[in-house]
Task: inverse folding
DNA sequence: GCCATGCATATTGTATCCAACCAAGGCCGC
DNA sequence: GCGGCCTTGGTTGGATACAATATGCATGGC
C-alpha cells in the first residue's frame, strides 16, 4: 500500500532482507531508536519502502545478534544492557582480545603494521572532521587488523559481535567526553609496543585500553542516570503489572 | 527498566517459528541433515506441517546463530567447520570457561555444588541407559552450573553458543570413542578440586578437560577424513560482507 | 466508587500467491 | 564435434491477505 511517491531511504538492489537488516542495525547502533520503545514492523516497513516480511526477517536476524529482543505478539524492542552487563562486555573483550593480540604478534609483518597505521590515520582524519558516524567501523578495522595475523576466524567473529554491542554505547560517551583523542593515543602506544616486539606490554596496554574505555563508559552512564533521572518527555510509561 | 533479578518465566509461549527453529536446530545438532546438502524450505515445511514462512524465519535465526549459511538465491546449507576451526572453538572455550570458573569459585555455595552433583548423576544415569540424545543439554547444564555463581550473563551467552557448536561435532565422536566415561571422570575431578577451594587446580583441570575433548575430536575427524576417501573438501567459505 | 469482565482495536504471526533468480540441458552455429 | 546461447524447470525472495493474540477502554456488577 505504499504510495508511488519517493520513499525515505532508496535501497539499492541486493537482497532486501539483508539491506533492511543493515539499515535497522545501523539505526540501532547510532541510537536512532529510543531504547525500550517497541519497533513497529509496519512503521519500519513503510519507512524503508518494503513489505513487512523483510523487516521481520531482519529483526529476527538482529534478535539472534542480540541487538533486539522479541516478545511474542507484543513486538520487538531494542535490547538494552545494564551498566553491569556493559562492564562485563568490556571485561570479556579485554580477556579475549589480549589473548588474540599475543597470538597474533609472532605472525605480524611490517605490512600488517603499515595497514594498522593507515587505519589509524584515516581514523584520526575522520575524527578531525568531526565525523563520529564511521567511528565504530574504523575502530573495529583497527582492532581486527591487529588480531588478523593470529588466524582465528571463529574468535574474530565473537569479538566482532562484542564490538558491535560496545560501540552502540560507546558512541554517545565518546561524543560527549572527548574520549576519541585518548583512544587514538592509546592505539598509537599499542602499535609502538608491537613494533618493539614487546608482547607483554602490548597486551597490557590493550587490556588497559579496553577496560579503561569500559569503565569510563559505565561511569558516564551512571552519572547520566543519576543526574538527569527522568528525561522522559511525557512518554506514557505504562507498566502492565502481572498479577 | 528491566528488573534486576532473573525474570520469572510465566509460560513459555511457543510460536510456530520458535518451534520450527528448535526442531531444525535439534536435527542439525544431532546430524539429521547431511552437511553440505542444501536445506529445502518446502521439504522442511511439509515435513513439519507448517508453511514456508516459519521455516524461513527459523533458518534465518539459525543463520545468525551460525548453524546454517545462506547463499543468496541458492538456499541454505548446514554450515560446517574445518578441523582447525573446531580446534579453535575448543581453545576459545577453554580460555573463557577457565576464567569463568575462577570468577565463580569465590561465590560458590554448597547448594551450587550439590546441584552440580545432581546434574552429574542425571548425566551418568542417562549415559548408562545409552541415551546420547540429551547429552549436549546435560553437559551444558553441568558447565553452566559451575559458572553461574560468577554472575556473568553476557559471557554465559557467548559460551552457550560455543557449546552448541561444539556439541554438534562432539556428539558423533563421543558415541564412537566412549569419551563419555572420560568426561564424567573429569567432571568429578573438577568438582573435587572446587570442593577443596583449589581454584588453580580446578581451572587447570577444566582447561585440560576442554582442550582434551577438542583434540580428541579433531584427531577423530582427521582420521575419519583420512580413512574414508571422502574427497569432499568442505570448503568452509564464510560469508564475507564488506561493510 | 472500585473491580472484574467483555468488546474493540491495533499489532503480530502465518498462509497463499506471484516474481526474480540460478542451474541445467537442449539447440544452433561454428 | 564442440562451445555458446537460450529456454525451462525449480527454488527462493517478497508482497498481499487473513487469522490469532494482546492491550486498552468501556460497561456492568458489587
Result:
Amino acid at each position: 500500500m505504499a504510495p508511488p511517491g519517493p520513499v525515505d531511504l532508496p535501497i539499492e538492489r541486493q537482497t532486501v532482507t539483508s539491506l533492511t537488516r543493515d539499515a535497522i542495525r545501523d539505526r540501532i547502533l547510532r541510537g536512532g531508536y529510543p531504547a525500550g520503545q517497541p519497533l513497529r514492523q509496519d512503521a519500519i516497513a513503510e519507512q524503508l519502502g518494503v513489505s513487512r516480511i523483510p523487516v521481520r526477517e531482519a529483526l529476527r536476524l538482529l534478535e539472534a545478534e542480540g541487538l533486539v529482543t522479541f516478545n511474542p505478539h507484543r513486538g520487538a524492542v531494542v535490547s538494552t544492557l545494564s551498566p553491569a552487563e556493559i562492564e562485563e562486555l568490556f571485561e570479556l573483550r579485554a580477556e579475549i582480545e589480549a589473548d588474540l593480540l599475543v597470538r597474533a604478534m609472532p605472525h605480524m609483518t611490517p605490512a600488517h603494521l603499515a595497514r594498522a597505521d593507515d587505519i589509524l590515520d584515516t581514523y584520526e582524519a575522520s575524527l578531525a572532521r568531526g565525523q563520529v558516524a564511521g567511528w565504530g567501523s574504523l575502530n573495529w578495522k583497527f582492532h581486527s587488523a591487529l588480531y588478523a595475523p593470529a588466524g582465528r576466524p571463529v574468535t574474530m567473529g565473537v569479538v566482532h559481535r562484542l564490538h558491535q554491542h560496545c560501540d552502540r554505547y560507546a558512541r554517545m560517551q565518546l561524543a560527549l567526553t572527548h574520549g576519541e583523542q585518548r583512544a587514538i593515543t592509546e592505539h598509537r602506544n599499542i602499535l609502538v609496543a608491537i613494533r618493539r616486539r614487546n608482547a607483554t606490554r602490548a597486551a597490557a596496554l590493550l587490556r588497559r585500553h579496553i577496560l579503561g574505555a569500559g569503565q569510563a563508559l559505565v561511569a558516564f552512564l551512571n552519572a547520566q542516570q543519576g543526574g538527569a533521572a527522568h528525561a522522559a518527555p511525557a512518554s506514557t510509561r505504562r507498566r502492565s503489572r502481572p498479577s
